[in-house]
Structure formats: C-alpha cells, structure tokens
Amino acid sequence: MNLKSSRDFCRRFGIGHQAGAELLRLLESEAKHGPPRQREAMKQLRAVAAQGTSLADGMNQQSKFFPPLMRSMVKVGEVTGRLERTMLKLAEHYEQQVILKNDFIRAITWPSIQLFIGIGVISLFIWIMGNVTPSAGGEMADMLGLGLRGSKGVLIFWAYIAGFFALLIAAIVAFQKNLGGIQNMIPVFYKIPVLGSAIQTITLSRFTWTLALALDAGLNPIAGIKLALDATDSDFYRAGADDAESSIRAGGTLTEALQATSLFPDEFLTQVGIAEVSGTDAESIEFVARDYDQRAKSALKTIAGIATGTIWMGVAGALIFIIFRIVMNIAGVYNDALQGI
Q: Are 88 and 11 contacting, i.e. CB atoms less than 8 angstroms apart?
C-alpha cells in the first residue's frame, strides 16, 4: 500500500469512525476505492472482520499489503479505544511523507531531464559519426575517442549507462538490506559535509513522527521507541532498542533512554529534553517532530540541490569534453595541412 493510498485510507476511516459509522460499512465503502489490489485487500479485511476478527489481526493476515506501521498503530488504537484518533494521526503522518516525497521528485525532475538530454546529445553524436560520410570518403574522425560509431555504438553507449545505473541501484538495495553490515557505516556517512547532516535530519524526522504517533495512541515508551526505531528502516537504529528498554526499566526518562542508544546527536537529545520538561512524552515528542518536519523539508532541498549540481556538472563536463575533442581534431587537421607550407 503506497503512501498516498495509506494516507487517504486512514483519513477516510478515521473520519468515518469518529462520526460513528459501523466498522463493516466503512470497510465495505473502502472496497470501492483505489486500485484492484487495494479493493481486494479491503474485501478480505471486511470478510475476516465480519467473523469477529480484530482489524489489526485482519491486516496482519495481509502483511504484504498493509504497512507495518499501520498494522502496529491500528492494534494500539483498538486496545486503547482510540482507533479514530490513531487513524487520523496516521493520516497526518503519511501526509508528511507524501509531501516530502513529492517535494523531492519535483526538485530532481528538471535535472533528470537535463541528464537525458545530455545522453541524447552524445547518442546523436555517436550515431552521426557512423552514418555520415565525409566528402573525401571514408569514415568521420572519432571525435569522442571512444571507438563508438553508428547505431551499434549508440547501443553500446546505452549499455554503459544502464550498467552504471544498475550498479547504483544495486548499491542502494544492498544498503537498505544491510548486506555485509554496511549500515554500520552510517555514522561515517553522516560526517559527509552538508549531505550527511541532511540525510540524518530526514531520518530523525521519520523517527520523531513515528514516536509521537505511538505515544499519542497510548503505546508505552518501550514499545513506542522500538516502533519508531523500526520505522527508520535501518538495522543500525533498530540495534538501539535494547539499550533504550534497559534505561526505561531502570527508571530513566525518555531523553535518557534515547541517549542510552548512542544513536542520536546531542542537539536532538537537548531538544527532546527541553520539550519533555514542558509536557507529557507524547506532547513533547510531537513538538520536536513538527520542528524536524520543517528541517526535513530543508534537508530534502539540500539533497535535491546536490543531485542537481552533480547532474549538471556531469552533463556540462560531457559536453565540454565533446567540444574539446572537436576543437583538438580540427586543430590537428589544420596542423597537418600547414606542415608542407
């Protein structure tokens, strides 16, 4: 279930439940929304709910469709009797994620177009070198020096490009799945100027939003922290759950529990500590979450700016290289012609 569908479902369900609508009727209505896979999931959810199964258990039977956070929070909402509030809070959480995602996509759209234009220009140049015959006969000079000409050369060039992106995607997947324990390098990544702090800010925003949501729904701090650490989708952060639990069981505050994990920067812990003094855990974390939401938006602009600059420099560098090669080849022709004078 994608972010937008999750947001819309939680919002409709929360409003309907708050208005007093019957659970089965709400699920029946939901079976009319979204793509076929979503409608089918809602039909199955209604079927098990009609048999007396709880909403959370019904979602767990379709764990490949309903997001883990949604399943966990629905269970908490049902146990605490605050399901409608929990669903509306979930909708707000997913809304923030949708906004961040859309902002990032908008920011990198134009750089991506520039990249494809650059690839298209180079491809056209390679094709011309293999399909245009000079007036003196023979082949055009290899302006790029890559040994690529014509349609075959274009296909080889595209294969190189595809190979590069395949390696990039493989690296991202390997990081997400923590292959070889690569996520242990996260503290090193955070030390990368500008980019590292931006990535850390986005991670902290996701953590605080989830923790605020869990505590507001009535989840105890131990389970709330564990759920929030899991929401970072990183084994590096998940590893801190036991330390946080030990601290709380020893009588520590929320701030002390987070400090015990050795995962969070001092600035973040200070902000949580100050907010914690002014209200309940749920209120304090929600205050911090809203602050980090704004920071995350700025961080995404930073990352998008870095991506834009990198793509622009790559395209510009390739075009400058082509121009340089053309000038050098022309200069070589003139130099050869002037040798006999």
A: yes
